[in-house]
Design a protein that fits this description.
Blueprint (H helix, E strand, L loop, with lengths): L62 H7 L3 H4 L3 E3 L18 E3 L4 H8 L8 E9 L5 E8 L6 H12 L2 E5 L5 E9 L7 E9 L2 E10 L2 E8 L3 H18 L1
Antiparallel strand pairs: 1-3, 2-5, 3-4, 4-9, 5-6, 6-7, 7-8, 8-9
Length: about 240
């Protein structure tokens, strides 16, 4: 599910009124030449037409800019490297939604959001996964540029969580995954952000979904506390805005 901002021009309603004064003649004799004639009624001046409000420019990154905006090991500090050691793929997206079943069915949209299954094809995509050398900590990030989608979909994720405190997913090969889901507070960076914690088999994976212009940013972290991944979301937005 793609989440970005749709820029809408404001609807301007213009109304104008005019008043006309009417003068009528009487039967009195015409005034002499010395009499001054009454001044003509002043025409009402036309109200100026306001200029249309320009639509805000939407931040939309190219592939080169997306690549430059991805988090680096330096953003996480000493001891972090590009992940070649964990054997994990936190943001794997090679699962086709037709090959699995999700219960309850209304939770499918949330699962797709976690896996980056956008309804519209991204014009640019970048993925990176980083790992701590000395601790079981992994962070993954995906940035997708998808034009003309709606940031309101972020709020929809929170709504789905209330209907999906637990999710059961059955893959095409019969493997079953059960998760407990809940939201957690994250900084409201970019155009909006929502945090989701997914717990299964004793592990908790924290997701943060952020909208920044036409960019849908997904962060996933294992072994980090919610505050730390919230700070990473702020760093991710800073990098995106700097890359533009």
């Amino acid at each position: 599910m793609s989440v970005t901002r749709r820029a809408l021009a404001p609807l301007l309603l213009l109304s104008m009124t005019a008043a006309l004064a009417a003068c009528g003649g009487g039967d009195d004799p015409a005034p002499d030449a010395a009499a001054t004639t009454a001044p003509a009624a002043a025409s009402p001046s036309a109200e100026p037409t306001p200029s249309p409000t320009p639509e805000p420019e939407v931040l939309s990154l190219t592939q080169e800019q997306v690549d430059a905006a991805l988090l680096t090991a330096d953003d996480l500090g000493d001891g972090w490297i590009v992940d070649t050691v964990s054997g994990m793929d936190l943001l794997g997206d090679d699962t086709d939604d037709d090959d699995r079943t999700v219960e309850p069915p209304e939770c499918s949209a949330l699962m797709e959001a976690m896996e980056g299954m956008a309804d519209d094809e991204p014009t640019a995509t970048g993925v990176v996964q980083l790992a701590a050398e000395s601790a079981p900590q992994v962070v993954a990030q995906r940035i997708e540029t998808i034009a003309d989608t709606d940031v309101a979909e972020l709020a929809g994720i929170e709504g789905v969580i209330s209907a999906c405190p637990t999710v059961r997913e059955t893959a095409a090969d019969g493997a079953v995954l059960e998760m407990a889901l809940e939201t957690f507070d994250v900084p409201q960076v970019g155009d909006g952000a929502v945090g989701v914690a997914a717990s299964t088999q004793g592990l908790t994976l924290h997701f943060v979904f952020v909208a920044v212009g036409d960019q849908h940013v997904t962060l996933a972290a294992l072994g980090l506390d919610p505050a730390a991944i919230g700070e990473l979301a702020s760093t991710a937005v800073d990098r995106i805005e700097s890359a533009a």
